[in-house]
Amino acid sequence: MRLERVAAHIPAGARLADIGSDHGYLPVALLRRGAISAAVAGEVALTPFQAAQRSVRDNGLELQASVRLASGLAAIEPGDGITAVSICGMGGETIRDILDSGRAHLGGHERLVLQPNGGEQPLRQWLADNGYRIVAEEVLRENRFDYEIIVAERGEGQGYSPEQLYFGPLLMAERSPAFVFKWQRMLRQKQQALANFARAKAAVPVKKVEAFEREVCWINAVLG
Ligand SMILES: C[S@@+](CC[C@H](N)C(=O)[O-])C[C@H]1O[C@@H](n2cnc3c(N)ncnc32)[C@H](O)[C@@H]1O
Predict the structure, then answer these.
(1) Cα 19-168-104 angle, rounded to 5 deg
(2) Which ligand 1 atom sits nearest the alpha carbon of residue 97?
(3) For the chain, which residues make up each domain, given as ranges?
(4) 2-158, what's its fold?
(5) Cβ of 44 below 6 Å from ligand 1
């Protein structure tokens, strides 16, 4: 379901670069459906790189899909004409670092479809700092994990408040049942952590306690 929801944000006919593709499931599924016209599957590690090569070969997609052993956006070559980039199933900070160190490989017109596992706030901060506008967001729950999908395009620079960077500007406006469920759970976790901090024998840094208190305050406000 997670990758199906990611797939729904890839524009029809796109030339997709899927970075950290692992088995290459996303590009292979989209090519098999005729939903995209070409794909690059990038992998930094040898075993998943070979698994992606196998998926492409087994599905007879060698003409439409290139599998490349490369770190981050270095998998994208100038002649690829990439129109969408997906980076999924990694921490938000890792996705941010991949985008930041690979900026030279982006033309600026690509749609970014990102699915961070945590670290959404620093990722949104990077997008805002680099002239991206968040055009769609989703939160979904699968196998007892909450996942977020962030879709961004270059556009009119938009300033986001600290709360919008934390919750997601579109998610906090929509307040879907999955969003409310996620943040009710997060609230319980943060309150528990604060109680543990208060009982801890070694002093917890004041800044850390203040950050948790601020987040509890924001969550209470967003849940109303
Ligand atoms: C947990 S898997 C996610 C696979 C798939 N994208 C998904 O969402 O199901 C993360 C993959 O990213 C790859 N990866 C991590 N850092 C990378 C980087 N800098 N460049 C390319 N691939 C990377 C790992 O080798 C691993 O196969």
Answers:
(1) 35
(2) 19
(3) 2-158, 180-223
(4) Rossmann fold (3.40.50)
(5) yes
Distance 18 CA to ligand 1 centre (A): 9
What CA–CA distance (Å, rounded) separates 121 from 59? 37
- Of 44, 85, 98, 101, which is best to mutate to test ligand 1, by the most ligand atoms within 8 angstroms of its C-beta? 44
Q: How does pLDDT run across 16-41, given as a tens digit for each residue?
A: 999 999 999 999 999 999 999 999 99
Q: Is 69 in the pocket of ligand 1 (CB under 6 A)?
A: no
Predicted structure pTM score: 0.96
Distance 71 CA to ligand 1 centre (A): 10
Amino acid occupying residue 166? Y
Task: Give 94's contacts (C-beta < 8 A, 6+ positions apart).
Answer: 119
Question: Does 72 sit in the ligand 1 pocket, CB within 6 Å?
Answer: yes
Rounded to whole angstroms, the Cα distance separating 187 from 174 reads: 19
CB 39 within 8 A of CB 65: yes
Split the chain (224 residues) into runs of 10 and give each run's mean pLDDT.
97 98 98 98 98 98 98 97 98 98 96 97 97 96 94 87 97 96 96 94 91 96 95
pLDDT digits (tens, 9 = 90+) for 85-112: 999 999 999 999 999 999 999 999 999 9
Both structure tokens of 89: 């199933």
Q: What is the pLDDT of residues 138-149, one digit of tens each?
A: 999 999 999 999
